[in-house]
Amino acid sequence: LGAGPLAGRHVLVTSGPTHEPIDPVRYIANRSSGAQGTAIAAALRDLGARVTFVTGPAEVAPPAGVQVVAVETARQMLDAVRAALPADAAVFAAAVADWRVANAAGHKMKKDGSGILPALEFAENPDILATVSQLTEGRPPLVVGFAAETDDVLRHATEKRARKGCDWIVANDVSPATGIMGGRENAVTIIDAHGAESWPRMDKTEVATRLAARIATALDAKGQK
Ligand code: C5P
């Protein structure tokens, strides 16, 4: 048995962007680097947890000492998350694409010289955080979501917590002026059933360390392993 406050606990973390294919060689994606999710997985590992790390195609390498499940699309991510359950806690740090291309081609699309342009149709992706939060069987006792907002952060994040059904929301202001998106630092507010707790601006690795410690405390309070 390992040591640390999370020894004997299984924690699931999603991280990175998803890629949604247009055809076999093209995709739609977003600018998530996977930095915050990777730091969280490493911090949970350092507290002794067994970590399953479900990651989209991220820029940052996954941490050592965790079970890495690499996926591309949102639907693959949901399948991988389901397969990784049960877990004592789940942290959804991935920037999942809201939409996928409904009419993705099975072969590389070609310019045919006719001047007719392809038209992409979209379908909504499953909301992985909401799906897991609302499981009637096998819901992790602690489910943590993120909310990256640019305005009215507290109100939007509080609404998001209720709508999705998760226990905590880690909210951050990603307005361009903050320099947080793609930067080294983050300033977050943790929203739970009791209210909001704002942390000072700090390194993303420090946010991860503090969040992992808060998860350990919460699981301790919930009792037996
Ligand atoms: O609704 P919004 O995308 O702002 O919610 C962000 C939170 O929901 C993040 O924790 C993200 O990982 C999660 N999410 C998800 N599946 C989606 C969309 C968001 O798990 N399809």
UniProtKB/TrEMBL annotation:
It comes from the Bacteria. One of its GO terms (cellular component) is phosphopantothenoylcysteine decarboxylase complex. One of its GO terms (biological process) is coenzyme A biosynthetic process. Keywords: Decarboxylase, Flavoprotein, FMN, Ligase, Lyase, Magnesium, Metal-binding, Multifunctional enzyme. Its EC number is 4.1.1.36, 6.3.2.5. Pathway: Cofactor biosynthesis; coenzyme A biosynthesis; CoA from (R)-pantothenate: step 2/5; Cofactor biosynthesis; coenzyme A biosynthesis; CoA from (R)-pantothenate: step 3/5. Catalyzes two steps in the biosynthesis of coenzyme A. In the first step cysteine is conjugated to 4'-phosphopantothenate to form 4-phosphopantothenoylcysteine, in the latter compound is decarboxylated to form 4'-phosphopantotheine. This is Coenzyme A biosynthesis bifunctional protein CoaBC. It comes from Paenirhodobacter enshiensis. The gene is coaBC.
